[in-house]
Amino acid sequence: MKLSDITSSLGRSRRGKQSEKDNDLGFGTNITTYGERLINPDGSFNIVRRGVSNWRPYQDLVEMSWLRFFGVIVAFYILVNSFFALLFVAAGVDSLSGVNPGGSLGRDFASAFFFSVQTFTTVGYGAMSPNGVWANIVASVVALVGLMSFALATGLFFARFSRPKASILFSDKAVIRPYKDTPYLSFQFQIVNERNNKLINVSARLTVSWVENLDGVKTRRFANLELERDQVLLFPLNWVVVHVINKESPLWGRAEQEIKDMQPEFLALIQAYDDTFAQEVHANGSYTSREIHWNRRFERMYYPQGVYTVLELGRLHDVAELEEE
């Protein structure tokens, strides 16, 4: 017997004996507020952190949105040059060649600000230059801060562009519908790769969470849901992820209102290997009872056109009545 056979059998036995506590995904069993979801539709955790502040500038600058990132860069650019402009004004604008002193304070500040910008960016048009010891010292500091700032900004730009991130889109609704020609129902949602890159070895995991009264105490419970197919080797089209509601499912035998009373949340985790970044990427999704449509089906997203197959990403969220099939 090979060692791999032993380890694989041990892995299967451990998964078979997996307790419900192991299925809670790290959320615990005490979050029982009605209507509260664990994962937001965008995949982020529905958790607000308070108390000890742990500000890490690099991590925040890499993870924030592009609009906010550019806002921070522009604000830093203006504030730093305004600070150095005040130093030039304090040293006297007569220490700057090409600036006519004796004007208003606003005019002097504007001239010093634009000189600071030229020094900060190493543009140096030549119309203005420092004259005197203090003006040259401040100009030297401005040049040093400018070089360091541009180096940091370049590194942040590279880190943001090179950061591996899965662009896997989740349908904004899920459906519960009959499963093929069987007496069973099925829970379904679909995903698609937004980008035109290769994702391979794509795997899906689905967990359902619901609130239940155990001995008069509200407790949040979790259960892994078995999928019709939990992995695809290639991901060129959309993927309808299907859980068959059979006798082993916690949803078995429950009517629509009974499932709504459970306050369920279906937590989806997608993992894949990104060929572009040569790294593993992941994406999270979540569905509550408000986002589940009964007796509906997803519209087909792809169709043949000549020698090609066309995938319509805009149809990701489209559902239709079953009678229309």
Write the layout of secondary structure elements.
Layout (H helix, E strand, L loop, with lengths): L2 H14 L40 H7 L2 H26 L4 E2 L7 H16 L8 E2 L2 H30 L5 E3 L3 E5 L6 E9 L5 E16 L2 E9 L5 E4 L4 E7 L10 H6 L3 E10 L4 E10 L3 E3 L1 E3 L3 E4 L2 E4 L7 E3 L4
Parallel strand pairs: 4-12
Antiparallel strand pairs: 1-2, 3-5, 4-5, 5-9, 6-7, 6-8, 6-10, 10-11, 13-16, 14-15
Helix pairs in contact: 2-5, 3-4, 3-5
Low-confidence stretches: 1-18
Element string (H = helix, E = strand): HHHEHEHEEEEEEEHEEEEEEE
Number of distinct beta strands: 16
According to CATH, what is the topology of the largest domain? Answer: Immunoglobulin-like
Rg value: 29 Å
- Global outline: elongated
DSSP summary: helix tally: 6
CATH class descriptor name of the largest domain: Mainly Beta
Could you tell me how far the N terminus lies from the C terminus, measured between alpha carbons in angstroms?
Answer: 51 Å
Overall helicity:
25-40%
Domain count: 2
Strand proportion: 25-35%
Under CATH, the homologous superfamily of the largest domain reads: G protein-activated inward rectifier potassium channel 1
Give the name of the CATH architecture of the largest domain.
Answer: Sandwich
Structural class: alpha+beta
